[in-house]
Structure formats: structure tokens, C-alpha cells
Amino acid sequence: MENKKPEENDLSIIVCCHKQDYYHKGAGFLPLQVGKANAKVDLGIQGDDTGDSISSKNPNFCELTGHYWLWKNGPHSKYIGLNHYRRYFDFSHKLPYGTNIFETTPQDIEKNFPTLPDLDKIFSKYDVIVAKPHIHSFCGAMHYRQYRIPNDLDILEGVIKEKFPEYWPSYYKIMYQNNKFSSCNMFIMKYDTFQDYSKWLFDLLFEVERRVHISQYSDQARIFGYMSEYLLNVYIYHNRLKAMKVPIAMVKDRLDNENNIRTYIKNFLIAIRYNLVHRLLFPRKSHYNPNI
After folding, report:
1. Which helix or strand (DSSP H or E) is residue 137 part of?
2. Residue 247 has pLDDT above 90, yes or no
3. Residues in contact with 138: Cβ distance below 8 Å, sequence separation at least 6, in sequence order
4. pLDDT on residue 152
């Protein structure tokens, strides 16, 4: 695939940062300090606490405070995206089935980080770029209820039925008949798609926020970051967007190739086990389409 260095007005990918650490500064990447309104340290980069902002909500919205800032205050670029300070899309690697993340180092990123492909060419075929799906051992709703607060999902589902009933069939397919999810709230979209997705997402989450009680939560306080990982998949499915799925490079201080290999094997076995069991229990027609 032909590579093309993006111009500043062609691409804006925020790189969400919350502490002093490595982050990539390539063309088209915008390092952004998320949760700056509550921060005890100034990272010396753009913060998400300027203009129309929800920076103070970062303990509950996580990287979405950066997403919101970009939506309300960011440049009007042709393509809009979100990465994390240690997670980046990598267009040069192919990973084994069932594996979506591999480990790398800051040195490798700076030395070998590939020039982004020609996005005009990609978006002539695709509508959105997302992370290669992670495969759970069971459906999304069961996964959320096992690892998060089950009542929160009940509230989310009630809001969808009430405010966005047209999305309910798509939500049901994604959350109850599917086990493959693009995670980390990472994406690259056309500007208009980003605007539409952002309006839908925050209208939904702000209503859920009004109905939940999270004052006693600890790690589970990151509720809206967790929910939105699933909702990105719902939005893509409902709007019939064609998704290009790209591995995530996870930056570590030291590279552990043995851990990468163990992760590949573990995820491959989980994927195979799930697919064998799922196809025995459910008819083929109930499966979610392979675009996600």
C-alpha cells in the first residue's frame, strides 16, 4: 500500500496522555493532556480543559474527555482520529487470528513507525479505521456483566430503548449475538462521520450519566470509557459502515518477545474455542457480520 505523509489539515489524531511519558509526535498527531482540569502536573502540551470541555469528568469518561474536546474544539481536518499515548494503529503488521495487540518499544516506534498509508485510498474503500477485534469467550453483554456493574448495563439499555429505539436491534445483535469487539475507543474517521458519531455517543452517555450513581465506585468509575468501547461497534454496525481493522502497537519500556508469543497463543486458543462452541449452540444466521 502506497504511503503518504499527511498534511496538517488532512489529519488530526489526538494522542491521549495523562502523565509524563513517551508519546509519538509524527505529522498529523496531536498530543493532548486528558483530565487536565484535575491534574497535579502540566505536561506542557495542549490540554482538554479549554473551550467547550468535560475535562473534569475524566475519572468517569477516561479518554472520552479528549474525544469530546476534539469534537468541540479541534481542527476541521479531513480525517479525525484517537490514539493513546502507548497505543497506536500499526498498518505494517499482520497478527495471528484472535490477537489484536502486540508489544513494541518507544525506540522501535520512533525508528520504524511506518508513514501512514494513503488515507484517501483507504477511505475510497472503507468508512472507518478501528482496532483489530478482540475476541471474548462469550458475548459482550455477558462480558460486561461479569467484569463491570450489571445494573449500569441495564440503565444503558433502558436509555437506548427510550431515546434511540432505532438502535436497539443493532445493539442487541452486537451485545448478545457477537463476541468480537474493536476496543480501546481508537478510530480514524472522516470528519462528517466523526461529528455524527460524537453527537450520538455523548447524547447517549450524558443521559446514562444522569441516571447512574457512581460515587462509591473505584475502578468501575471508568464506566463511560468501558461502555463506549462497545458502543463504537454498535454505531458502526447500525450505520452499515465498512471497517478496516488494524492491529494496535502497545508501547512498553522493554520488549518481551516471549510475552508477545504467549499472548498470541492464548488469544488464538480462546478464539478457536469460542468459535467451535458458538457454532454448535447458535445457527449460522445469528452471527454478526464479519466487518467488525
Report:
1. none
2. yes
3. 179, 274
4. 95
194, 14, 183, 247: CA torsion to nearest 10 = 110
Sign of CA dihedral 276, 278, 280, 286: negative
Q: What is the dihedral of CA 143, 144, 145, 147, to 10 degrees?
A: 80
Judge whether residue 128 has pLDDT over 80.
yes
- Give the pLDDT confidence score for residue 276 in this predicted structure: 60
Full-model pTM: 0.86
At residue 289 the predicted structure's pLDDT band, cuts being 50, 70 and 90, is very low
Question: Which residues is 251 bridged to in the sheet?
Answer: 104
The answer to whether residues 255 and 103 touch, using CB atoms and an 8 Å cutoff, is yes
DSSP letter string over 26-74?
-TTEEEEETTGGG-SS--SSEETTSSS--GGGHHHHTTHHHHHHHHHHS
Distance CA 289, CA 177 (A): 10
How far is the C-alpha of 22 from the C-alpha of 220, rounded, in Å? 26
